[in-house]
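Note to self: keep these together.
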Amino acid sequence: MKLKVQLIAHLASNAMFSKTSVELCLNDLVDKIGDVKNGASVKEALLCMAEATSLECVASQVRAGGCCRKYFKSRFDLTHCLQLGSY
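Structure:
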């Protein structure tokens, strides 16, 4: 999973990354943001995706998908990551 997240971050930074790409990659990332092993890599990938497209694009999709998550830690980490990206 860690290699998959790193690959997404690399592609977001170095390739043509569109809103459609964000939609396709986001579900896997949102599920793992609260994970101890992969949380930091997921946050980095989300921020790279926000830089490649826009923070509004990623934030709106994260909010739409993140509000449905059943784990509080994941919702908290998603909100925290979006706050860090907005500064």
